[in-house]
Amino acid sequence: MSLCVSQLQCSRGDISLFEGLSFELKPGQLMWLEGRNGSGKTTLLRTLCGLFLPDKGSVEWDGEPTKSVMDTFCRKLLYLGHQNALKLDLNPVENLQTLSRLSGQTVFEEQIEIALGQLGLAGYEDTPVRKLSQGQQRRVALSRLLVSDASLWILDEPLVALDIAAVELLLSILVKHVEQGGMVILTTHQALPIPEEKMVRLSLDQYA
User: Fold this and answer.
1) Strand partners, 80
2) Among 60, 96, 134, 141, which one has the highest count of C-beta atoms within 10 angstroms of its own C-beta?
3) Which of these, 143, 195, 148, lies nearest to 169 by C-alpha position?
4) Rounded Cα distance, 40 and 15, in Å
5) Exposure on the CB side of residue 174, measured as CA atoms within 13 A
6) Nearest in space to 92 (alpha carbons), one of 73, 119, 74
7) Distance in angstroms (rounded) separating the CA atoms of residues 146 and 111
């Protein structure tokens, strides 16, 4: 099982963001996607998830084009973008239950409560998300990582709005996922203390 990208080209309007991009991500690897602002990092992540159509090239999952196995691929994928994708009038438990169902997974309330507790949200299980701070809302979204059975995590700036303790916790969660054979692709402007043998660094600047 792997994610394979071949000769990918994407543009925004008449401006080419990157072209000729190829890579393969295998189980047990984390890819740190780098590049200057406007280089197309978010566009690439959305393209990998099937939310944006490339101009050229292909994205394959386990040897098959993702567009041909999208249902299977989506069950193995967890995407967290800039937005937290939370319903503000629902509480954290209700949000995680809803998001899990949308991904085809059944998660018990006890599992969710344990995950929220690990992210420092014990006592906020019944609080509407709109009453939580920006950092707390981000923690709710990141709690999905602890209850999801997806093998591929695609994360766009997951460390934003987190304090030092939450950053350290998230990094430990990422390391554990990779050590257990999972795959991660993420963007961040912060240093990643991930073992070199587990990490692949890819800069979009060289494909501009």
Assistant:
1) 155
2) 96
3) 143
4) 11
5) 26
6) 119
7) 9
Distances (CA, A) of 163 to 13, 84, 135, 139, 142: 37, 17, 8, 10, 13
Mean pLDDT of the chain: 94
Query: From CA 101, how far away is CA 56, in angstroms rounded?
Result: 33
What are 86's two structure tokens?
């939370």
**Cα 187 → chain centroid:** 9
Instruction: Encode pLDDT of 112-145 as tens digits.
Output: 999 999 999 999 999 999 999 999 999 999 999 9
Whole-prediction pTM: 0.94
Identify the sign of the CA torsion 43, 24, 58, 149. negative
| Torsion angle (degrees, nearest 10) of CA 135, 140, 144, 147 | 130
> Which amino acid is it at 49?
C
Residue type, 163: D
DSSP-based three-state secondary structure for 96: helix
Burial code (b: 16+ CB inside 10 Å, e: under 16) for 73-110 equals: bbebbbbbbeebebeeebbbbbbbbebbeebeeebeee
Query: What pLDDT, in 10s, does the model give residues 93-105?
Result: 999 999 999 888 8
Q: Of 99, 96, 100, 98, whose CA–CA distance to 119 is shortest?
A: 96
Position 85, amino acid: A
Tokens of 28: 């047990």
- Work out the percent of the chain whose per-residue pLDDT is above 90: 85
